[in-house]
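WARN  no MSA supplied for this record, continuing single-sequence
INFO  ligand: adenosine monophosphate
INFO  echoing inputs
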Amino acid sequence: MKLILLGAPGAGKGTVAKMLTELDGSVQISTGDILRGAVQAGTELGKQAEAYMKRGDLVPDDLIMGIMEKRLQEPDCARGFLLDGFPRTIPQAEALKKLLEKLGITLDMAVNIDVPREVILDRLTTRRTCSNADCQAIYNVKSNPPRVEGVCDKCGSPVVQREDETEEAISKRLETYNEKTAPLIGFYEKEGLLLTVKATSSEAVIEAIKARLAA
Ligand code: AMP
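INFO  complex generated
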């Protein structure tokens, strides 16, 4: 399947994407994971992106499109992909549309995961992430803690709170979402690709996606 996952930070895009990869071998492409990996590795991209990310601002569109143009042409994307955290702005959505046309790829849908603000705030302050750039498994201190506190179940690396998950950066990220990313809902509605799912459980989101794919 070829999907875009839309939704505020903490809506569950990453969790849903990871669950969907199990269904048909589609790959999760998270621009946030790619950028955090680049920051950790100290690459040129990481150096350019780091300050924006720490503040909870968006990284400039041209850097993101450079990443995505390459990534979407890698062979593992042939079986399908789940775009998690991309596109984030109207210019990115327009550039993606042109890129997909050039590559002859058709999207199945853009899924808008719509979760109440109180749930989002609670989730972001209690979320923990594996610090290994190749893993980045997601945990929650309340609802889904690792088996051993602070240690990733999957790879044994330390599980930490992300630097952009301080209260200040979270409120900035939510503001940025409302201003720059929420308009994509209207964009994909016009394209005839939108599926909005109001659900706080990832399983319910998966069921709604499966039902639409089967229709
Ligand atoms: P995420 O893990 O998706 O919440 O992304 C973490 C941070 O990475 C965001 O707050 C942005 O600074 C940056 N980022 C991730 N994806 C994008 C994107 N598509 N466009 C611009 N910035 C992005």
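Strands lie at 2-6, 27-30, 81-84, 109-114, 127-130, 138-140, 159-160, 194-198.
INFO  checksum written, moving to next record
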